[in-house]
Structure to design on (891 residues):
C-alpha cells in the first residue's frame, strides 16, 4: 500500500496542528447539560436513545444519541432555560425543562417506562436544518446508531438494504451501487451522497463508490435517506434523493475502540479509533481501518475473447493485462477530525481523510481492475449562530488501475472544489427563511486516458443560489416554498428548480404532506468529454470502438435517399483505399460495393472466392445489405433497422418533476406507518453508453440465394454465406468524425416518460424487547420506450421489492439480534457494456451481538444466510453467503 503523504496527509495534519495551537481554555460563562437515560424497570442504560434539546421559543438547538452507557452531553450552552425531550423505541417519551447559568453543568437522570413505540428522531437533510422526521416536507428514513454499530459491514451501503425506496446492488464483497427510486447503473451517481454535508462522490467521474469513503461505518451517528428530488436545496444530481451520513463529534464520543473481524472469503478487518477532549474548547478524533478478502469470481466472455486474441498474437500471458482479474480486495482508510468551539456560538470543524483501495469495479465500458486507487478529501466547516459555511476538496489518484477488456491504463488525478454558504433567519415565531449559495469547480485530469483529446477543455464550473421559506399557520399546518437557480459552464441555459410543500400535523402522532419538486441532473464529465478506446481492432479488420462524450455540436449523420445506400445512409470503410485508391471517403451504405475487399479478406483466411463473380456486376439488386450494431455485452452484432441511426444532439440536463403525497404517523401506541405515493415526469434522461454507429454487412439470406444460383453445393453455400455475411465492410459514422471508420459509443438525451410509485414502511414494537418492520416499494414501469423511436431505457431496478425485519434488543443483558429479509423481483438491465435480465432473488441477513463486561462486544453478521447464489446486476458475479465475526474493545 502506498500513500502520497506530501499531497494529502501532510497538509491536513498541518491544518490540524494550527487549529490545535489556536485552542485555548474555555471562555467563562458557558454552560452544559449532562444526563443519563435508563430503563425505569431494570435500571439498565439505554443505548442510542434520542435526546433533543430545544430553546425557550421551541426551536431545536441540537440532537444527540446516547452512548452505550446511556449518557449524553450538550456543551457550550448560553445561560437560559432549555427543554429536553428523550425518546426510545418501545418506551414512552420524557420531556422536561432545565435551567442553566454561566459556568454551570446541569445534570439530569431520565428513566423511561415501557409503553409505546415512537419514531421521533431529529434529521437535518430534508430542509438543511434540524427538524423532526414527522415534520419534514419529504419522505425521510433514518438508520440509527444502534443499527450501525451492531452490524459489521465492509461499506456503509450495507446499512441501506431495507430502507424503503432504496436500491442497493452488490457487485462484490465491498462494491455496491445505491440509488433511490430506481434509475440505477453499474457506475452510478444518480443519488446525491453526503458525509457530514460533503459531497462524497469520486470527483470527475461522479460515481458513488462507497468503498472509497475513508470513514469507518462505526463512526457514523446516523444515516439519513431523503427519497425524491432535492435540487431546490442541494442543487444538481439530487433528483432521485439524498443519502446523508452524519458522523459523531469527538466531544460526544470520547475514548478508544479497537476491533478485529474475520470471516468467509478470507475477510479480515481491523480498525482503531480514538477520540479525546483536548480542552473544554477542542476535541479530536482519528481512525484507521484496514480490510482485505477474496472476491467472488466472474468470467467476462468479451475479456476472455480479446485475451486469447492477444495471446495468439504473441502476448505473454504472465504480463498481459487484458482479462487479468485480481480477486484480492484490499482497502486502507485513515481519517481525522478536529472540533473547536471558538466561542459559545461558533464552532469550527476540520476533517480530512485518505482511502486506498484495490478491487474489481464495473463501469459502463466494461469492468476495471482497481489497483491502489487513492481517494482523499479535506473539509472545513464553520457553524456560527444560524450561519453555516464550508469548503472542501475531493481528489483522486487512480494508481495502477486499468480496463480489463483492453488492458489500457486509467489515470485519474481529478479534483472537486466546493464552497457553500447558508444562513437561516426567523421573522417572528412562525416564519423562517433558509438561503445560500453553492460553488462547485470540477477539474478533471486524466492525462489523456479518459478524456483523450478533450483534456485541455474539460473544466466544469457550477454556481447555484437558493431560498426556502417555511410558514407555520397554526393548528399543525406548515407551508414550505423554495426556489433555486443554477448555472453550468457547459450548458446553454440556466436551470430553475422550484419546490412547494404543504405539511399538516393535526397531532404529534400524524402528519400528512403534499409536495411538488422540480429537480435536475447535469451531464457528467464523461457525458461531455469522454474520449477513450473501448475495444481495439474488432475482428482484426482495423476498426476500433471509441467511447466519446457528446460535443457541443452533437453528432450528425448524413442521409440522402437518392445517393445513399440502405436507409439513405453513408458509410466509411477501412477497405475503401484498396478499391478506389486515395484516402477513405463516404460511400453509400451498400455492402455490395465491397466485393473486392471481401475477396481479399477471405483469401487471408484461406478461402479462395476469386472465381465467384461480383453480385453487384452480374446481378445488381439481388443481394441485400443489412445493418448490425455491436453488442458490448456479448461481443456479437445485433441486427437493427436503419431508423436506429439518428442524430445525437448536444447534451441537456435531465429534468425530473415529482408530485408526492405522504403520510407518517402512529397507529395506536406501538405501530408506526409511513406511506408515500408519487408521480414523476422525466425529461431528457441521459442514457448509458450506447453504440450509435451500426456496421454494414451483406444480408445472409439474399447472399445465400445468390450463391446457390451459381450452382455451388448447399454446404458450401451455407459456409460461404455465413463467413461473408459476418464481415463488417463499413461503419455508419457521423459527419466530421475524427476516426472515420471506427465505431462510436456515446450518450444521448431520450424523450419524456412518466413513472408512478409507492413506498410503504410499517414498524411495530411487539414488546419492550422485540420489534418488527416491513417495507414495500412499487413502480409502474421498469422499461421505458422513447417517444422519438430511439430505443428503450431500463430503470435497472425492479418494479417490486420488499423487505422485513425482526429485532431483539435487551439493554440489561447486552444482547441484540436482528434478521433482515430482502426480496427483489426480476428486472431488465441496459447499462453501457452490460445488457440482460437479473433473475428474482431473496436473501436473509442476520446480525447478533453481545456485550461482555465493560466495553467488550462480540458481533456476528451473516449476509445471505441461506447461501442463495444470485446475481444483482448483469456483469457481476453470483453472490453467496458472507459471514463475519467481530470483537471490539472500548476504553
Amino acid at each position: 500500500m502506498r500513500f502520497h503523504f506530501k499531497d494529502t496527509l501532510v497538509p491536513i495534519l498541518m491544518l490540524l496542528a494550527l487549529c490545535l495551537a489556536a485552542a485555548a481554555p474555555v471562555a467563562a460563562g458557558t454552560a452544559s447539560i449532562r444526563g443519563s437515560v435508563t430503563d425505569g424497570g431494570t435500571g439498565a442504560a439505554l443505548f442510542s436513545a434520542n435526546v433533543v434539546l430545544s430553546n425557550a421559543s421551541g426551536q431545536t438547538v441540537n440532537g444527540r444519541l446516547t452512548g452505550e452507557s446511556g449518557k449524553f452531553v450538550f456543551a457550550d450552552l448560553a445561560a437560559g432555560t432549555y427543554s429536553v425531550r428523550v425518546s426510545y423505541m418501545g418506551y414512552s417519551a420524557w420531556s422536561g425543562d432545565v435551567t442553566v447559568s454561566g459556568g454551570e453543568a446541569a445534570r439530569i437522570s431520565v428513566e423511561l417506562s415501557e409503553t409505546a413505540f415512537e419514531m421521533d428522531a431529529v434529521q437535518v437533510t430534508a430542509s438543511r436544518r434540524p427538524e423532526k422526521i414527522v415534520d419534514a416536507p419529504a419522505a425521510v428514513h433514518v438508520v440509527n446508531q444502534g443499527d450501525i454499530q451492531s452490524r459489521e459491514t465492509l461499506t456503509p451501503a450495507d446499512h441501506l438494504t431495507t430502507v424503503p425506496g432504496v436500491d442497493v446492488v452488490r457487485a462484490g464483497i465491498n462494491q455496491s451501487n445505491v440509488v433511490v427510486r430506481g434509475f440505477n447503473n453499474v457506475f452510478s451517481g444518480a443519488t446525491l451522497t453526503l458525509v457530514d454535508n460533503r459531497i462524497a462522490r469520486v470527483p470527475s467521474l461522479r460515481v458513488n463508490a462507497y468503498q472509497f469513503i475513508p470513514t469507518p461505518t462505526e463512526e457514523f451517528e446516523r444515516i439519513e435517506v431523503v427519497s425524491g428530488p432535492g435540487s431546490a436545496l442541494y442543487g444538481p444530481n439530487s433528483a432521485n434523493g439524498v443519502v446523508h451520513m452524519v458522523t459523531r463529534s469527538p466531544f460526544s464520543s470520547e475514548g478508544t475502540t479497537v476491533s478485529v473481524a474475520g470471516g468467509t472469503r478470507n475477510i479480515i478487518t481491523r480498525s482503531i479509533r480514538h477520540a479525546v477532549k483536548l480542552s473544554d474548547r477542542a476535541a479530536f478524533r482519528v481512525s484507521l481501518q484496514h480490510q482485505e478478502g477474496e472476491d467472488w469470481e466472474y468470467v467476462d466472455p468479451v475479456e476472455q475473447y480479446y485475451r486469447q486474441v492477444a495471446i495468439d498474437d504473441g502476448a505473454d500471458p504472465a504480463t498481459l493485462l487484458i482479462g487479468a482479474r485480481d480477486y484480492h480486495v484490499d482497502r486502507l482508510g485513515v481519517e481525522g477530525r478536529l472540533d473547536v468551539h471558538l466561542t459559545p456560538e461558533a464552532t469550527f470543524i476540520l476533517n480530512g481523510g485518505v482511502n486506498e483501495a484495490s478491487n474489481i469495479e464495473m463501469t459502463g465500458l466494461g469492468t476495471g481492475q482497481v489497483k491502489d486507487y487513492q481517494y482523499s478529501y479535506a473539509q472545513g466547516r464553520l457553524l456560527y449562530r444560524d450561519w453555516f459555511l464550508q469548503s472542501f476538496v475531493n481528489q483522486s489518484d487512480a494508481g495502477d488501475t486499468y480496463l480489463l477488456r483492453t488492458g489500457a491504463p486509467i489515470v485519474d488525478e481529478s479534483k472537486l472544489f466546493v464552497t457553500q454558504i447558508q444562513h437561516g433567519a426567523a421573522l417572528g415565531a412562525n416564519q423562517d427563511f433558509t438561503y445560500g449559495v453553492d460553488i462547485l469547480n470540477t477539474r478533471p485530469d486524466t492525462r489523456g486516458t479518459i478524456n483523450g483529446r478533450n483534456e485541455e477543455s474539460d473544466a466544469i464550473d457550477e454556481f447555484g443560489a437558493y431560498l426556502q421559506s417555511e410558514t407555520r399557520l397554526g393548528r399543525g399546518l406548515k407551508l414550505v416554498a423554495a426556489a433555486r437557480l443554477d448555472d453550468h459552464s457547459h450548458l446553454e441555459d440556466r436551470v430553475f428548480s422550484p419546490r412547494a410543500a404543504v405539511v399538516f400535523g393535526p397531532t404529534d402522532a400524524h402528519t400528512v404532506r403534499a409536495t411538488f419538486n422540480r429537480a435536475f441532473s447535469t451531464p457528467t464529465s464523461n457525458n461531455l468529454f469522454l474520449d477513450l478506446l473501448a475495444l481495439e481492432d474488432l475482428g482484426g479488420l482495423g476498426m476500433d470502438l471509441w467511447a466519446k462524450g457528446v460535443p457541443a455540436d452533437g453528432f450528425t449523420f448524413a442521409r440522402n435517399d437518392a445517393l445513399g445506400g440502405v436507409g439513405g445512409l453513408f458509410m466509411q470503410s477501412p477497405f475503401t483505399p484498396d478499391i478506389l485508391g486515395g484516402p477513405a471517403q463516404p460511400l453509400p451504405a451498400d455492402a455490395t460495393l465491397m466485393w473486392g475487399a471481401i475477396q481479399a479478406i477471405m483469401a487471408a483466411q484461406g478461402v479462395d472466392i476469386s472465381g465467384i463473380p461480383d453480385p453487384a456486376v452480374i446481378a445488381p439488386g439481388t443481394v441485400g445489405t443489412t445493418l448490425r450494431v455491436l453488442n458490448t455485452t456479448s461481443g456479437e452484432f445485433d441486427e437493427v433497422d436503419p431508423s436506429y441511426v439518428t442524430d445525437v444532439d448536444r447534451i441537456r440536463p435531465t429534468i425530473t418533476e415529482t408530485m408526492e403525497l405522504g403520510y407518517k404517523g402512529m397507529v395506536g401506541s406501538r405501530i408506526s406507518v409511513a406511506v408515500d405515493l408519487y408521480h414523476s415526469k422525466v425529461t431528457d434522461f441521459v442514457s448509458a453508453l450506447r453504440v450509435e454507429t451500426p456496421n454494414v454487412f451483406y444480408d445472409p439470406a439474399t447472399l445465400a440465394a445468390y450463391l446457390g444460383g451459381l450452382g455451388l453445393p448447399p454446404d458450401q453455400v451455407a459456409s460461404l454465406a455465413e463467413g461473408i455475411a459476418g464481415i463488417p465492410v463499413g461503419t455508419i459514422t457521423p459527419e466530421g468524425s475524427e476516426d472515420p471508420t471506427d465505431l462510436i459509443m456515446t450518450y444521448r438525451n431520450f424523450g419524456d416518460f412518466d413513472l408512478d410509485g409507492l413506498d410503504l414502511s410499517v414498524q411495530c414494537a411487539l414488546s419492550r424487547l422485540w420489534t418488527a418492520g416491513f417495507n414495500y416499494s412499487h413502480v409502474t414501469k421498469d422499461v421505458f420506450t422513447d417517444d422519438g423511436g430511439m430505443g428503450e431505457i431500463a430503470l435497472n431496478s425492479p418494479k417490486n421489492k420488499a423487505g422485513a425485519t425482526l429485532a431483539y434488543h435487551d439493554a440489561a443483558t447486552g444482547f441484540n439480534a436482528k434478521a433482515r429479509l430482502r426480496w427483489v423481483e426480476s428486472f431488465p438491465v441496459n447499462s453501457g457494456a452490460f445488457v440482460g435480465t437479473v433473475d428474482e432473488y431473496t436473501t436473509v441477513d442476520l446480525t447478533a451481538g453481545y456485550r461482555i463486561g465493560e466495553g467488550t462486544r462480540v458481533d456476528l453478521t451473516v449476509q445471505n444466510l441461506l447461501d442463495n447464489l444470485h446475481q444483482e446486476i448483469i456483469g457481476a458475479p453470483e453472490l453467496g453467503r458472507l459471514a463475519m465475526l467481530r470483537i471490539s474493545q472500548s476504553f
Remarks:
- The longest strand covers residues 366-384.
